């Protein structure tokens, strides 16, 4: 699969790059994508939710009324879940929501997500971006040149060495910057436009082969 390489201004460089069919041209596996996205979202959960059960409530253990003769139901503790301020029955407890997935399955999920982007023309290959200093307006200028300023975009860099690009784009609404080795299925699918720098293509192909 061949795709044109664009300048940061959005103009065609006249060059084309060949994308590996083993990554960008596979038949997407929807179930692998589902599992990888499910794991990503589960791993974001803190799991610190907590409610007190009756043994954790501060209060007297004295029997609040006599057993019989009141005309109402018997009650032995003010901590009972049926009373206001009592403990909660089977309430949420701290837990870890994360789970593990096979490396090959995660790799297949990322390949499938990239294949969907390539198939839907949501993938753009850019010449390598390099800013001399961190300037948000320079990053916005790139997005405007590519006509994606009003869309959710994900820019993939080969590594985090060029901090000026990261600093320039971190406060831009609907824009996210990541590196080839940190790319995940959720971010790829969540973006309307996937912008990949030319140097990142080779790194992605080496990581996912």
From TrEMBL:
SUPFAM superfamilies: Ribosomal protein L4. InterPro entries: Ribosomal_uL4 (IPR002136), Ribosomal_uL4-like (IPR013005), Ribosomal_uL4_dom_sf (IPR023574). This is Large ribosomal subunit protein uL4. GO terms for cellular component: ribonucleoprotein complex; ribosome. Coiled coil: none annotated. Part of the 50S ribosomal subunit. It comes from Roseivirga spongicola. Keywords: Ribonucleoprotein, Ribosomal protein, RNA-binding, rRNA-binding. The lineage of its organism: Bacteria, Pseudomonadati, Bacteroidota, Cytophagia, Cytophagales. Residues 45-77 are annotated as: Disordered. One of its GO terms (biological process) is translation. Belongs to the universal ribosomal protein uL4 family. One of its GO terms (molecular function) is rRNA binding.
């Amino acid at each position: 699969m061949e795709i044109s390489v664009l300048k940061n201004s959005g103009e065609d460089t006249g060059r084309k790059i060949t994308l590996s069919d083993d990554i960008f041209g596979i038949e997407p596996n929807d179930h692998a994508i589902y599992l990888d996205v499910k794991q990503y979202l589960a791993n974001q959960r803190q799991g610190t939710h907590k409610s007190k059960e009756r043994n954790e409530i501060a209060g007297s253990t004295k029997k609040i009324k006599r057993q019989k003769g009141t005309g109402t139901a018997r009650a032995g503790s003010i901590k009972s879940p049926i009373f206001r301020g009592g403990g909660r029955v089977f309430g949420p407890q701290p837990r870890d929501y994360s789970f593990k997935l096979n490396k090959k399955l995660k790799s297949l999920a990322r390949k499938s997500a990239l294949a969907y982007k390539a198939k839907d023309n949501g993938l753009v290959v850019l010449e390598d971006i390099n800013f001399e200093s961190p300037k948000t307006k320079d990053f916005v200028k790139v997005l405007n040149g590519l006509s994606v300023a009003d869309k959710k975009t994900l820019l993939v860099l080969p590594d985090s060495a060029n901090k000026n690009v990261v600093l320039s784009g971190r406060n831009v609404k609907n824009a996210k910057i990541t590196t080839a080795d940190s790319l995940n299925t959720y971010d790829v699918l969540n973006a309307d436009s996937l912008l990949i720098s030319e140097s990142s293509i080779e790194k992605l192909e080496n990581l996912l082969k």
